[in-house]
Design a protein that fits this description.
The chain is of the alpha+beta class and 418 residues long. It is built from 12 helices and 12 strands. Helix content is 38%, strand content 16%.
């Protein structure tokens, strides 16, 4: 057997075997062409090469040559330096985008992936077979269904306090419609995100959320009340339906968005040196525009399902305000979170004794006292000591962080990072 045969590929060895049989007369040219999947003209060319050069004539002429599309050495060195410094933990796709956007280097994501593997920054991952879920088609119109969720995370990578990000994403288009940073995932944070969404797009038809207590009453023994949470009452006033998913996979669009945000948004804020909630919130509009340009798709139906908000901002603030009832005492006083207030009247105000008034707590901290479609003036009287109640159980992380920090100060120990 010729020495060149050992340097051949499997395809070349097969061709060599068939050409040898052809040269001995064991094969017709048409049969050899069918066997190798080539034309008769190509078989004649291969036979001429084999007779002239032997087995070596069937080895590809491209072997050993440098590809004309090979990455330039200096360009590769620059990419490697940037991957090792600025983009060390970036994925291949995101790194290739940033190399073009920030450094003016055009390179494919697969080339970046190969370089990352060579540098030890990434490894070849094998696909794992997981449970297959039945896919659900997107809603056809923008605004028919908005998936909402909160993502508690170390968004500033230790440069600032841990916080939560409230995410609103459209089911039909994968457009981000609102992002709201907050110290904890609370009803108030969701209402701020809802205000942003309504002012930008209008009123959606429905929200799709998990089954947390922010969105539904989960206590089986709860017999009193109207059966709505505070967020549910706001949705009812605005005629927005609330749908709760039974599994995380059911609201997979927002869950996958959370994963992507925890990768891309974190790195975008790192590149810009953002380390606090206020600065991050100012960056949100720019990031939302980048996200929608990169990931949003066109809806099946171009008709927008949002209902426009035709009233002013004050009316929207009133619709989003938290409501609670109080009964006025004989002195026309009422208490709110350890503070006592008194309703002011021009006369003795006997008619207001024992009446039930509605308190509206606005997002900006204002409070209004309503009685029979009119607002009552009031004044602060005194404060009573009482603990500040948690808004809901998703503030647990934030409250525990305060407890751990206070313990560390009291006992002069190093606090444990979450």
């Amino acid at each position: 057997m010729s020495e060149g045969l050992f340097a051949m590929s499997a395809l070349e060895r097969e061709r060599c075997h068939v050409i040898r049989l052809l040269s001995k007369g064991d094969f017709r040219q048409s049969a050899a062409a069918d066997c190798l999947g080539l034309s008769v003209r190509q078989i004649k060319r291969l036979l001429r090469l084999w007779r002239a050069e032997g087995d070596a004539g069937l080895i590809s002429r491209q072997r050993g040559r440098v590809s004309p599309r090979r990455l330039d050495v200096s360009k590769r060195a620059r990419i490697e330096a940037l991957l090792l410094s600025t983009y060390r933990d970036f994925g291949a796709t995101f790194a290739s985008e940033k190399l073009l956007e920030r450094d003016g280097i055009t390179v494919s994501r697969e080339t970046v992936r190969r370089i990352q593997i060579d540098l030890g920054l990434a490894r070849v991952r094998r696909r794992r077979s997981g449970r297959v879920y039945s896919p659900r088609d997107r809603r056809p119109r923008f605004g028919e269904l908005i998936q909402i969720d909160g993502s508690p995370h170390d968004w500033f990578e230790g440069r600032g306090e841990r916080c939560s990000l409230i995410v609103f994403i459209d089911d039909a288009t994968s457009r981000l419609t609102a992002l709201e940073f907050a110290p904890a995932e609370t009803t108030s944070a969701y209402l701020r995100a809802l205000r942003t969404h309504i002012l930008a797009h209008g009123l959606p038809l429905a929200f799709y959320s998990d089954r947390h207590g922010i969105f539904r009453i989960n206590a089986k023994e709860a017999h009193s009340g109207d059966g709505y949470t505070e967020f549910g009452r706001v949705a009812e006033r605005l005629r927005i339906d609330l749908i709760q998913a039974t599994t995380p996979q059911a609201k997979g669009r927002v869950e996958r968005a959370n994963q992507t945000l925890q990768d891309r948004l974190i790195k975008e804020m790192r590149l810009r040196g953002i380390s606090d909630i206020a600065t991050a919130q100012r960056f949100v509009p720019e990031f939302v525009a980048l996200w929608n340009a990169r990931f949003a798709c066109s809806p099946l139906d171009d008709t927008c399902a949002h209902r426009p908000w035709t009233k002013d901002n004050e009316a929207l603030d009133e619709a989003l305000a938290r409501r609670e009832e109080r009964v006025l005492s004989k002195a026309l006083t009422f208490s709110v979170r350890g503070k006592v207030y008194a309703v002011k009247t021009n006369g003795p105000g006997i008619a207001l004794r024992g009446v039930r008034v509605t308190l509206l707590h606005f997002q900006d901290g204002r409070m209004r006292v309503d009685y029979k479609n009119r607002s009552l003036p009031y004044t602060f009287v005194k404060a009573k000591h009482s603990p500040d109640p948690a808004q809901d159980e998703k503030t647990l992380d934030a409250r525990m962080n305060d407890i751990v920090a206070a313990y560390a100060i009291r006992h002069q120990v190093q606090p444990i990072s979450p």
